[in-house]
Structures are given as structure tokens and as C-alpha cells.
Write a structure and sequence with these properties.
Elements: H1 3-9, H2 15-23, E1 27-29, E2 32-33, E3 47-49, E4 52-53, E5 62-67, E6 96-98, E7 106-112, H3 115-122, E8 130-136, H4 143-151, E9 154-155, E10 158-159, E11 164-169, E12 172-177, H5 184-191, E13 196-204, E14 207-208, E15 217-219, H6 222-229
Parallel strand pairs: 7-13
Antiparallel strand pairs: 1-2, 1-3, 3-4, 5-7, 5-15, 6-7, 8-12, 8-13, 9-10, 11-12, 13-14
Helix pairs in contact: 1-2
Length: 231
């Protein structure tokens, strides 16, 4: 097994984050620093991270969380803000978010210690759909703005793919995208002259937020995880 994948399976970090750890010289195998993420290791290899022996692989778990506004989508925050990981009291497991929601956004986010799954769900090539409920300030949304969102918007970092858009009211939309750029939905709405005043993710791939209350979490079933892997 590749070293980066081995670290991800052990719950150290996602595969991409593990590759960064390795490249920075923080990982050793059988007493020697290794900087190649593709280095082959097996169960008999003595792997250490920052000088600490790597424990056996954790049981893989994935949670759905209803993130409140004001909570950041990271495992730790240098500014002391509450993090989404702190919403789960599963002691001993090193969980990290799958994708991100801005601190001023709410709704469905996944937490897992399964690096392979996290990589599949966040890599752009898999185009996992994510659906948002968006409330807008200003004048009612018109047909021209809807058409532009559906056709794709030219942003400063390039054009977006076409979005699926459904009008729920004069100032509310349901919008589905298959990309994961920084603050993408807010920037798309700004490009058509509308300011987002409330943004909530209600669907991630096949999973829906449903009746999960704000700040609460639930562990996904094996069937649900299987559906995510099938993406």
C-alpha cells in the first residue's frame, strides 16, 4: 500500500493532507525519513509521524452534521472559533471535514476518518452534486438571472459549469452545483446582482439534510457510505 494511503486509512489525515505531511519530512518508515508518498508499506512497516508510532487503523466512520452559522469547517482553528469537529464527541477518533462550508453558511457537511472516501468526494473529477437553499436580498430574482445561473457564470477564476436552479420564492432559490470553489454560490449570485443573506446546504451527493437539527450529527449507515463510494 502507498504510504499516503496508509496514513489516510489510519485516520491521520486525508490522502492529500498525508502527502503534504510526507513531503515535509514528518514521516519515517523503519527509522528513516521518507518524503515519497508513493513509498510502499505493509502491516509490518514501522511508521512514525512526528516521531510518534502510528497506531493501527481506526474503524472507519462517517458522520452527517448540520453545521450552524459561526462554526468553521476545520479540525482546528488558530483564532479560537468553534469547529465542526467539536460538534461530535466520538472520543479518540481523528475526524476531518469533507469539503467546506463558510463560517457564515450552515447545513449539511460530512466528517470522516476515511481518507479514501474524503478524497473521492472532494476531487473535482468526481463532480459530486451539492444542493443549497439560498435567500437573497434586494429585488425579486428574475428570469434573466435564473438563465445566467443555469448557463454558467464567468467568475474571476474562470467560468462555472451550468447549475441546476429552482425558484422557491421571489427571494429564495434552490441551487445545485457540481464544483467546489471557494464561496462559489455566493460569488455566482453576486455576479447576477444578488447578495446572499442566508445559505444552507441541504444535500451532499445522495445524502439529504432532512430533519437533522442544527448542531446535531448522526453516523451514516454502511448502506449510505456505500452509496457515497458508488459516486
Amino acid at each position: 500500500m502507498r504510504l499516503a494511503k496508509h496514513l489516510a486509512h489510519a485516520g491521520v489525515a486525508s490522502r492529500r493532507a498525508a502527502e503534504t505531511l510526507i513531503a515535509s519530512g514528518r514521516v519515517s518508515v523503519d527509522g528513516k525519513i521518507v518524503t515519497d508518498p508513493a513509498r510502499d508499506v505493509d502491516e509490518g512497516s514501522a511508521v512514525e509521524v512526528d516521531g510518534a508510532p502510528l497506531a493501527g487503523a481506526e474503524p472507519r466512520v462517517t458522520y452527517a452534521v448540520n453545521k450552524p452559522v459561526g462554526v468553521v469547517s476545520t479540525a482546528r482553528d488558530t483564532h479560537g472559533r468553534p469547529t465542526v469537529v467539536e460538534l461530535i464527541s466520538d472520543a479518540g477518533l481523528r475526524l476531518y471535514p469533507v469539503g467546506r462550508l463558510d463560517a457564515d453558511s450552515s447545513g449539511l457537511i460530512l466528517l470522516t476518518n476515511d481518507g479514501e472516501l474524503a478524497n473521492r468526494l472532494t476531487h473535482p473529477s468526481f463532480e459530486v452534486p451539492k444542493t443549497y437553499r439560498v435567500k437573497l436580498a434586494g429585488k425579486p430574482i428574475d428570469a434573466s438571472a435564473l438563465r445566467r445561473l443555469r448557463e454558467g457564470i464567468e467568475l474571476e477564476d474562470g467560468p462555472t459549469a451550468p447549475a441546476e436552479v429552482r425558484r422557491l420564492g421571489e427571494h429564495e432559490l434552490e441551487l445545485t452545483i457540481h464544483e467546489g470553489r471557494n464561496r462559489q454560490v455566493r460569488r455566482m449570485c453576486a455576479a447576477v446582482g444578488r447578495q446572499v443573506i442566508e445559505l444552507r446546504r441541504v444535500r451532499f451527493g445522495p445524502l439529504r439534510l432532512g430533519e437533522l437539527r442544527e448542531g446535531a450529527h448522526r453516523r451514516l449507515s454502511e448502506t449510505e457510505v456505500g452509496r457515497l463510494r458508488a459516486l
